[in-house]
């Protein structure tokens, strides 16, 4: 059996967790400006029809009391790493698919699926105070659809014998790969539910939506999905980038703050995955959209924000003329290795101090959230600087 674990309204839930005054209120994380977009909406906001990907202007019209919160990707990366660490503690084969979602393979886990799902949910609730919805099924497809059915804050277990009964009533466009165009074609032939697809001869499906999509739908409609859970402890790199809505001068303090924030979230993700990395890469996009990158491979693998930041600053300085206007900065750590633990001895006494400090911060953040502890230069970022930050990608 395969488990699909998915945090409910992840970004919004993290904001409600660290700001108790937002609990029970309609909250959306995203851009507040005239061209802003909702990235994540609390269930209170969803009750008004607000959803991810919706222009903020429209969301406010649907829900005038909506509280807009600027995204804090550093915080979400840290919380995500903490949740993934919980999942890794429960199963050997864990495949994260995004910050708030992962598949787990139950083969060899030796615990009944329902009890496993309950344990997973209660552990994430206890340790992270977040709602995790869990779906269990014989394939990735069924597990994913089960977790959707489980939301909010629930679990749905679909044993092989129940797959057909579970899938048949679902709308056909709930299957992966059924976009608006395919859905329209299916509707024209009166195929509205997954059951309708299952009852349609394979050749007919191929004629309606094309050979490849037809084959896929014929399998999916029966819950068949050969994709295995691919454990991804061995991530190849961790990284992130920030786009500034207005170009920023290369000398502006915001650049340093942004690089430090990226170093911090990269380091937290490395440590949560028990990895360290050797190569630090800085990416810069100028106001004219020209994009450049520069890397440095360090003598020792690192997993501390202090070390990543220290490597990133000279790379940035080497890439960028002082007067340049910057649109985006990115920071990535590559050459990841689970075996090569950073050898603090080689780095001297001061770095041992940093290591102790950052590992202590990890433990505090695991209990109290990322806002509890952060470097001095990130404190107060919630003012002007944060308004300029717009996250992109992971
Ligand atoms: Mg989610």
Describe this entry's structure for a reader.
One of its GO terms (molecular function) is damaged DNA binding. Its EC number is 2.7.7.7. This is DNA polymerase IV. By secondary structure, the protein is α+β, with helices and mostly antiparallel strands. Among the domains are: 10-71, MutS, DNA mismatch repair protein, domain I (3-Layer(aba) Sandwich), CATH 3.40.1170; 164-220, Orthogonal Bundle (DNA polymerase, domain 1); 237-392, Dna Ligase, domain 1 (2-Layer Sandwich), CATH 3.30.1490. Helix content is 41%, strand content 22%. The chain has 15 helices and 13 strands. A 5-stranded mixed β-sheet has the order 5-6-1-7-8. The chain has a 5-stranded antiparallel β-sheet with strand order 11-10-12-9-13. A 3-stranded mixed β-sheet has the order 3-2-4. Strand 10 (276-286) and strand 11 form a beta hairpin. Helix 4 runs parallel beside helix 12 and helix 10 (202-209) crosses helix 11 (211-220). Residues 343-351 and 379-394 have low confidence and may be disordered. Residues 6-7, 10, 100-101 line the site of magnesium ion.
